[in-house]
Amino acid sequence: MSGGLDVAVLTAWLGRVAVRYAAEQGYLCDLDAAIGDGDHGANLARGFTAVVAKLGQPASPAALFKSVGMTLIGTVGGASGPLYGTLFIDMGKAAGESTTLDAASWAKVLAAGLAGVAARGKAQPGDKTMIDALTPAVQALQGETDLTAALTASAAAAVHGAEATKKLIAHKGRASYLGERAIGHQDPGATSLAMLLQGLASEAG
Length: 205
Ligand code: ADP
Ligand code: MG
What we know:
Layout: H1 7-23, H2 25-35, H3 40-54, H4 61-75, H5 80-95, H6 103-121, H7 131-141, H8 147-164, H9 188-204
């Protein structure tokens, strides 16, 4: 993919993710039912349906990310709504005036989103949250100049990070009340975060 991430590609990505979250709603709710309250899939399916409905034709990637973030904060609810919202809003701030993001600028943008989520939720790697998918995804982008390779490696790292949450005790969110009983269960937020980045790799990879 040579053209980079422009508004058209990013819009198509969000549509793809909305379809995926609708399809995986039951799976994500089941993951959350095991270690939380069972609403994660419904939260995200509702949020991304609203994202697609409200997006319109944003003027830039920055405007698009800001719109997505505001919609997610307003519609997802729970712990993950403000966190997913912050991810996109801080990505928007980092996107600046760019009309098209290449591998290096996407790396900068996603790193800014990670920093925002970490600052807001105070979770660290190993706490069994979406941070455990997002952190390796950001790391996988470092030094990769080919956008297709970067997005593919980043999505794979996120999937691996999400799967690795199975062995962790949770230190943030509802799952933290379970102590060792959370072991063996994959974190729903890390799983949905990996799906988000898989969607981008499929759309633009
Ligand atoms: P709730 O827990 O309020 O029902 P969701 O079910 O939508 O919200 O989202 C749960 C997910 O949110 C968890 O699987 C975890 O990945 C993420 N999460 C919860 N707290 C934090 C936090 N402090 N930092 C990062 N992610 C978090
Ligand atoms: Mg929940």
